[in-house]
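[SOLVED] Need 3D model of a two-part complex

Original post:
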Amino acid sequence: MSHYNNNLDKNNANYVPLTPITFLERTKDIYPNYEAIIYKNRTYTWREVYDRSIRFASSLEKNGIKPGDTVSIMAANTPELFEAHYSVPMTGAVLNTINTRLDTKTVAYILKHADTKALIVDRQFSPVVKKALDDLGRKILIIDIIDKQVDLKDTEKIGDFEYEDFLKKGDINYVWKRPKDEWQAISLNYTSGTTGNPKGVVYHHRGSYLMATGSAVAWNMPNRLNFLYTVPMFHCNGWCYPWTLAMLHARVICIRNIRAKEIFDLIDQHKITHFGGAPIILNMLASAPKDEQKELKHKVYVLTAAAPPPSIIFKKMKKLGFEVMHVYGLTETYGHILQCAWNNEWENLKEDEKADISARQGVRYPNTEDVQVMDPENMKKVPRDGKTIGEIMIRGNVVMKGYFKDKEATEKSMKGGWFHSGDLAVMHPDGYIQIKDRSKDIIISGGENISSIEIENTIAKHPSVSLAAVVAKPDEKWGETPCAFVELAPKQKSTEEEIIKFCRETLAGFKIPKKIVFGELPKTSTGKIKKFELRKKAKDIN
Amino acid sequence: MSHYNNNLDKNNANYVPLTPITFLERTKDIYPNYEAIIYKNRTYTWREVYDRSIRFASSLEKNGIKPGDTVSIMAANTPELFEAHYSVPMTGAVLNTINTRLDTKTVAYILKHADTKALIVDRQFSPVVKKALDDLGRKILIIDIIDKQVDLKDTEKIGDFEYEDFLKKGDINYVWKRPKDEWQAISLNYTSGTTGNPKGVVYHHRGSYLMATGSAVAWNMPNRLNFLYTVPMFHCNGWCYPWTLAMLHARVICIRNIRAKEIFDLIDQHKITHFGGAPIILNMLASAPKDEQKELKHKVYVLTAAAPPPSIIFKKMKKLGFEVMHVYGLTETYGHILQCAWNNEWENLKEDEKADISARQGVRYPNTEDVQVMDPENMKKVPRDGKTIGEIMIRGNVVMKGYFKDKEATEKSMKGGWFHSGDLAVMHPDGYIQIKDRSKDIIISGGENISSIEIENTIAKHPSVSLAAVVAKPDEKWGETPCAFVELAPKQKSTEEEIIKFCRETLAGFKIPKKIVFGELPKTSTGKIKKFELRKKAKDIN
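Solution:
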């Protein structure tokens, strides 16, 4: 009988439930006067961010918010949204960030499903919210954010309070509520869901804490980095970085509207060292007119995620001097859990090979216990051959608690003790994972599985092409055939024949699109291409 | 009723007990061929470190080691000791590192108290161990480490196996045992205890994991740093860095004997960026003859801990180009939990003021939830005045499980929900903690508390002095008076009168030592000054 289990129990001295709120508290204690958040002409120190969050939390509680309540927020990447990541959980309540591009119906659905007790809303979005509140049919506490940078002439006051007034009513000596259990919910994130109602992904304090520590190591983020907040904080809590950045006492530069010129200007002005963005953003930067670009005077590290990026993007960004790392994750995993970690052994490869390698989703984050590619039928790992397709399965402390009020979907998603990502991928011999498709995006032609992504990557390498999306088109003979939708780069021209010929140079015959359609691609609120719309279109094309 | 507690439970997909073993597994998967450990002419890659640990674990299990057993190791900072931090917990057993400078009696006590089932021992220490085993009076599994760098002519084989042979018998496909509960013990560290029997401090997997992530942020350690392992790994598991360094896929350079010349040579040869050492080591480096020193070609970051360092050390090291951060911790807290984090607002202070500020113990680590200075009688915080003395009290997940088989001491040490450090300190207005003394080292003269450290720091500033220790000397009139023991720097001379005069320039009259004694200071196996011996001496001096 081992003595290690005797009289060595948890007590208040040696066990404290993990919560990322402590990162802000510590940074406020150590670096109170350091710049924390900069947004246009507004600058807050870490003490101010803490004090404002404490006051706001106190005011929420005074207005009836209790532990376990949901507080929603629909806001752009302004200081208020950063602060809400602290103020709301400080009361024991759960933060629900709402995508600012959603329509009235979906917003109403979320407010209802989330049991929202209070809503913080940027005035710019009040028209949508006002209608959603009518749909909701019950009175909730509304707090208005007034951003003086925004033209508000078509908006109206819908709040009971303005953010700054509400905050001022709070008590600066409010004692924030530590979670009694680190499994306690901290946030609720609705998936963008290309079909059906969005699902509410619940994060807990433990996972948010571990996401912060793991992300810092994965991306080698130093203390006091200059971070440009291009990634929407409403998306996976902005990759959980409001917590990571406080831990690292970073300088956080907010940006409301994503424009190439403004990004280049801010990088220059604030010596930005790190930012993130979907491939579509990187594409925008790389393709921006020369007079909007600014030469980089220092190293800038970029994370890209959200869609499998064409490898050409890595080449283009590298040419501008950016160091891009490709990462992969889902709302259900607090953000990223795979990273295409660079290995020095690849230094001598050709530039094209390097770009191809960088486009892989990669290997697990330090906070992620296991990621495998498995056959979902028998839960067996696929061979490491870079060919056999299986589903990405994830296990670890940065997998969600589950879907809010949806027992069935929760159980289905974590069947067999693994989270089922729904993404189809291969495992390369070196252990790096590469996505081939979403389960529903795979094209089955004459019994062969075709990865739409492989074709997309090929087309994207064509010098005239900016973006490509490939979907299945029903076909009498083959069952399905690939159909490509192509967005050309500014001032570029091309033809169907030219693109098909270009594909033929590298792709197997059965993978070559039978049809090429030019035009702007439809995108979701988070920048993902709406393949379901393209599938509908493809059906109707002759 | 909140829905956040319904159907959102832990399962195998979203909850995995934390263990630092996963850091090695991940680094092996991603950077298998990167250099991991370098010791003289031996170099192991991360895959080799993993494989060797797995094999060793397998062999331990084949030889009867079970979860909850204790495996002890008495070794220098060689690759074997690093590997033991993985191989032993991989079997579910608990690693007990033994200080290599201990005497037979204490080693026997530890082996007995720890219920040691197996002992790994470097051949250099076999004479002491052999006698200790005779005392122990029961047969345990012994594995010999043969270090070819060491002259072994006065040693004999005492093991059942040699380390490398034992390892080779292990199965490379062994599946290591994840802890079922992150509260499970991972290591057992006996305090050096200046009086009485040493106490066995028990660490768990959770704390070791959080020590790794927190340490990296606290010291701003980047991925792939070049770390020189000067700190004994038998001490607080080498500050838990075997786990931190695997997480960061560092290059770890081992060093067996601490000599100034070898340290300077290794810094140069391996481009060392980080190392740690007690003030006594830094003093050795700073005072080394010019022909043993080498000019630094790059930035070298140094952590110092273990004893309150005289501020003059910071000045000396800075002059050589080292960037020193002062940290504080105890065996009971997995290593450091306070750091003297630098604040840019101090840039314009004078060099002396900067050095004084750097000598403070500082503010809490990111993984440490709360550290306060309190009156242990009523558990009230002392005012932040830099004057009122209280005891340092600690709370967080990096406080030990407790003392092994010592319920009473465990309960006493964590009374009132705080770990009682036994160190007396003040809290400065900026929230930085500064140690004034160990409870038992404070000198009470004429009813006034005198900090022995304040006097030591003063004397250490004298150009001829290398090291100073001040203890209480019984005194008929005053109760106690300060008595100073002084070690002079090489080739330096001084007199009692000169030192006393030097003290008078800055110290209050009642703090000036009544007696100065020159000579080498007695030190414990971890480099702490044996004040109890000095106290005895002081008593007998006229």
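Edit: Chain B has three domains: 39-206, 258-439, 442-540.
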